[in-house]
Amino acid sequence: MRMPLIGLALAAALSLSSSGCLKAILTNGQISATRQASSALDTIGDFEMAKASTASGLTQFEGMHRLAPDNTDALFLLTKGWAGYAFAFVEDDMETAVDRNDDDLATYHKKRARMAYERAVFYGLELLHHTDDGFDQAKKNEDTFKKWLDENFSSDGDAETLFWLGYAWLSRVNLTKDPALVGELFIGIAMIEKSRQINPSYNHYAGQTALAAYHARTAMSEMDESQKLFEDAIAKTQRKTLVIQLNYATRYACNKGDRPLYEKLINEVLTADDPDPQQRFTNTIAKRRARRALLKSRMEDCGF
Fold first, then answer.
1. CA of 121: how far to CAs of 65, 66, 169, 188, 233, in Å?
2. Domain ranges of the chain
3. Structurally, what CATH architecture does the domain formed by 4-301 represent?
4. d(CA 33, CA 298)
5. What is the pLDDT of residues 198-236, one digit of tens each?
C-alpha cells in the first residue's frame, strides 16, 4: 500500500522534529494521504507483489496508529487492511494447504486468518466508538442493534467502516463456526445491511455480494433471495467484478447442486481477460480461486 520511501521520509521527518505538535501534524497528514492513495493497490495484478506490499503496509499502519492512536483514518486502514489481508492471502494459503491434504498447515493458516479477522474487528469497533460509544449496550439483540445503527451512522464514511467491520465479523464466524460467535452473527449482517443502505455501490457492490453469499449459506437457506442479489450485482457491475461470479458459483450454485451454472460461472471467471483495470487485484484473486474451484475434491464437496 504505502511505498517504502514514503515510510522512510516520514521517519526522517519525525526524527528531526522536537515538537510533539509538529510530529502529530506530520503523522496525521501522512495517514490521510495514505488512505487516499491506498486504492492504487487495486490496479496491481501481481499477486505476490501485492502480498508482500500489503504485509509491509500493515506493519507501517500499526506503527502510525501507535503514533496517532485517535486518528480515524489509521483505524479505518487497519480495519480494512487486516480484513483484506485475511481474505486475499491467509485464506488463500489455508485453501492451498487443504487442497494438498496438509491438515497441520491448513490448521496453522486457519489460526492466522482468525487472528487477522479478530484484529480487524478490534480496530473496527474502536473506530465505531469515535461516533458513538453504545455498541456494547446495543448488541443485546437484533432490534436494539439495528436501531443503534440507524440513529448513529449515515455518512459514506460510515458505509465504508460498517462494510469492512461487518465483513470481518462474518468471515470470522464462517471460518471458525464458534457457537458463541454464531450467536452474534446478526451483528455482522446488520452492519453490512446498513452499509448497503447508505451506499449500495460501495466497493463494486461488495455489501450486496456479501449478503447474497450469506443467503446461500446452506441449501435450506434463502436461496431465491441469494440468486436475486447475485444476478442484480452482476448486472450492475457489468460482469467486470469477477469475485461476484466466483461467489455465485461457490456459494449459490454449489449449495443448490446446480453443476451447469457452477461450471459456467467458474469458466467465465477463468476466461475473462482484464475486464476492469481498477479491479485487477480482486479479479486476480477470483481467478486463483476459480482454478481451485474446478478441482475434483471441491466439485465433490458440492455433490457434483
1. 15, 17, 6, 10, 26
2. 4-301
3. Alpha Horseshoe (1.25)
4. 42
5. 999 999 999 999 999 999 999 999 999 999 999 999 999
